[in-house]
Design goal:
Strand content: under 5%
Radius of gyration: 25 Å
Mean pLDDT: 85
Low-confidence stretches: none
Distance between the termini: 67 Å
Order of helices and strands: HHHHHH
Structural class: mainly alpha
Oligomer: single chain
Helix content: over 70%
Amino acid sequence: MRQNHRDIVEKEILDALLNDSYSNDFKTIFSQYRLLVETTNEIGTRRENMNKFYLSLITILYGIITFLSINCHVLFSIVPILFVIIVSFSWKNHIDQYKLLNEAKFNIINYLEKYLPVYAFTKEWELLDNYGYNGLSKWDKRIANSLIIFSVVLIAIILLSEHTIICNYINVIFN
């Protein structure tokens, strides 16, 4: 089976992971392994906070949209809806970046496990794969995608419902 470029580069990086001055010092390897596991957990916390931030921002934007559609002309709500779409795309990008960061860290952790008595994370991911685990990134992205689709549909509904008003504005401008 042919490896793609990313897999080849990843293998080269992992093969060059150990220093030339490396010795079979279990304590040092375990210390670095533990540090990687701790920082991986911190990434999970940062990612959770990022999700909370985006959900809060989008909730506020939908509050503004509701306010504008009730108290002003409904067309004024299109701008914050467009902003929801932009924010959702940004959220998806951040989800992808955190996923890549975690993948890199776990690849290094899995590599270091070769020098430890137990393959804890390596086997955990194998079991999760056997159980059909999809990962949280897919679910987070589904939420962001749903918000994008909902926002586009909402804009379409607004524009279609306001079609006659928009046509009247255009006629006034050009006549």
